[in-house]
Amino acid sequence: MTTAICIQNLSFSYDTPQNPVLSGMTVDLAAGTVTAVLGANGVGKTTLLYLLLGLYTPFQGDLLFFGKPGTHYKKSRIKKFIGMVSQNETIPFDLSVNAYVLLGRAPHMGLLSMPGQQDLKAAENALATVGMTHMADSGITCLSSGERQLVNVARALAQAPDILLLDEPCSHLDLVNSRQMLLLMKNIAEQGKTVVFTTHDPNAAAAIADKVMLLKKGELVAFGTAIDTLTSAFLTKTYGNRIEVIPTSHGPFVRAI
Amino acid sequence: MTDKKTSLIFILTLAMVIGSVFFGRYPAPYMTSISDMLSDNLVLKVITDIRIPRIIMAFITGMVLAASGTAFQMIFRNPLVDAGFLGVSGGAAFGASLGIVVLGGSVAAIQGAAALFAVSGLAFSWVIAVKIRFGDWVLRLILSGIAVSAMFAAGTGLLKYLADPLRELPELTFWLLGGLWAITWTDTLQVTAICLPCLVILFLFRWRLNLLSMQDETIFSLVASASWERILLLLTAVIATSAVVCKAGQVGWVGLIIPHIARRFVGSDAQKALPCSLMLGGFFLLLCDTVSRTLLSGEIPLGILTSFIGAGLFLILLMNRQLQLKKG
User: Fold this and answer.
1) What is the pTM of this model?
2) Quick one: pLDDT at residue A52?
3) Which residue, A89, A57, A86, is CA-closest to A71?
4) Which of A63, A173, A237, B325 has the most CB atoms at less than 10 Å from its CB?
């Protein structure tokens, strides 16, 4: 299987190297898989996504995409194959859902171009993928949190990325919407895209992730399949609190004690 | 539907531009007929040498303030921002006050100092924003802009206090209230030469404004050249605003309310909202200026009319339930 993302000895700090947010991380993420990044608040989950996006520069280590270093690609090329859905995206103006999703086409358009037929079609397909076609003309501020999150994913899908990064995509979503979001991510990965998402819910990771990454204070506690990583020992070490893992027919069920 | 509204606004704007030629105080108050124009050379000269350059200037001023307001609001992700932020208007007011009170009060001194300090307002805001050590760059720039504006306002206040109450203070007060009474063809051509390229740039980048109104991480994931696009559009908006403010004085509210009204008509998508803002801005300022020079025998300061009519229109628009916000 092709390696989509290769993280080699990655370290990052917001201020001095003596105070790293992430240190010495090395993992390979295969194309067409879902990877969940788990860890307590402030351990560097979002920072890792921003490093993958290229928003931050690591002070040590390398990031390879499809076998080539990130620096090998032109900035405009990277925008075409890495999409990002940030946590709690705020949109100050009441764009229509369709106009908002069309923004995802920016990397494929010329500097002064307006969206053309191809872009409209891509936006339409992206909305269909997330099941929001019927809301295309609605204002984005009229949507519920769940609907808005689906539209955010549609915007990222319109970008036609090979790698999709999602920062806590299920936060603020109710049980049903959360389930829908997880199934959507699984579905996207089955189409050959590489999905990396952060979450606070180990059960969400257990439900869909091919690989799980456990982080504690910027260091990798464990990386592997859900069965291998979502164990009481690893999770207790990750969260610093006793965690119980109950095996079920659907995979591990995790709860804090 | 949106296209129909845009076409209607275009037709109304065109009618306003043509119609305004026939309004004025010479040879008789209010209306000037075609026969007056054809029969009296002096009337024709008043129209071609005074009224038409002023109409063009009013229209360009309206377009510039509205388009810049749209750009500022979208780039700063804040619907309450206009040229008053970033110290541009405050700098222009201070510069003009300096021109009147200290530099002798010639037209060149007033306009030159106004333009210089308007651009300096941006430069100061920018330099201070770089030095601030917290918040994202939009917050830093707005905070430093507010501080720079306040300092310029203090300077303007001091110059008002020092001004000769019989000679300089009335002129200063009148400039601060805004007006196009002294506009000549030379002024109009100078402003057009600066503003037209700026308006073309803003128009061409109108869809990108949607992108630049997103939060930083989203912009970064979609746009490779966001930083220079922001700088280009901000500089373009500031240069155009400085060019019109140094000739027209302080014309408030246009940059704030016209973008809102345009969004009410055609939706928030800047691809449609910016062209609509351009037309509505031109229409609105031309309407106010026509009233300003026609209604009374003396000129009514433009800034008073734009604030009064603009705020009134805005309140009506906000309270009218039939004018639902258009998504787009």
Assistant:
1) 0.90
2) 95
3) A57
4) A173
